[in-house]
């Protein structure tokens, strides 16, 4: 886990599900939410990674459970919701954070690559939101937070399919905000910039997939010149916005994308 536990209790009594929480940004979200008193379901396709993060939260005195889920499979998503309701008795906040990165030049992007990235990043958000919204609707309240990207607004030529998938997450943020507002449910997005996580290990490879050099941070550094604050981010830079969007402080905000990118995309 990449974020220190805080001492606040802004989310005491709340239950959050964070998908893709076995690593990186999602793990930081889970840690920060738990530090504010939330019970957190750490959901990931990598069950061992999820268990590791959930155990760390528990060791620090937080409430957490690990759930193995494939966000592209409705049955798996339904089972995740059932497990969380059985374990914690409620769900208040859903973080749709699971995602995969694809770096591929526009002209060589294949159908297979397109389907994979759209399935996890796009369809996964639709399925998880639908299944958790059923519970939110019964209680007339709930929050959904989608991990978008700078790519949602500013696609690059080497990330065409990924950017399309993240544009779809932003579109789903807007459409679900409209669809779910009548039920007291808000939906917002967080747009991380360049955040140092395992996702960027792909950047350490050339077009043939071969590893280039020894230091994966070199590829990240190439992107620094496009960042106003002149550094790549950490998961801990993004987590406070997740806490804000899970808390009552954001109750009158819906359908919005908050960029946490050090100043890459100026909206
Ligand atoms: N790291 C960045 O620079 C950056 C920038 C913008 C947006 N994002 C987004 O942030 C989110 C988290 O990325 P990260 O950087 O922490 O990456 P990461 O690779 O560290 O974590 C992604 C997690 O998603 C999980 N996952 C993948 N497919 C899944 C599936 N089908 N079902 C459930 N879980 C699945 C992985 O097992 C992994 O634990 C992603 O949506 C990513 O697109 C990342």
Under the CATH scheme, which class? Alpha Beta
Ranges with pLDDT <50 over ≥5 residues? none
The CATH superfamily name is NAD(P)-binding Rossmann-like Domain
Distance between the termini: 31 Å
| Ligands and ions found | nicotinamide-adenine-dinucleotide
Beta strands, count? 7
Chain-averaged pLDDT: 93
Give helix % range.
Answer: 40-55%
Q: What does the overall shape look like?
A: globular
State the strand order across the main sheet.
Answer: 3-2-1-4-5-6-7
Named at the architecture level, the CATH assignment is 3-Layer(aba) Sandwich
Number of domains: 1
- Helix and strand run: EHEHEHEHEHEHHE
The radius of gyration is: 17 Å
Q: Could you name the key traits of this structure?
A:
binds nicotinamide-adenine-dinucleotide; Rossmann fold; 267 residues; oxidoreductase; globular; oxidoreductase activity; SDR_fam; seven-stranded parallel sheet; alpha/beta; SDR family NAD(P)-dependent oxidoreductase
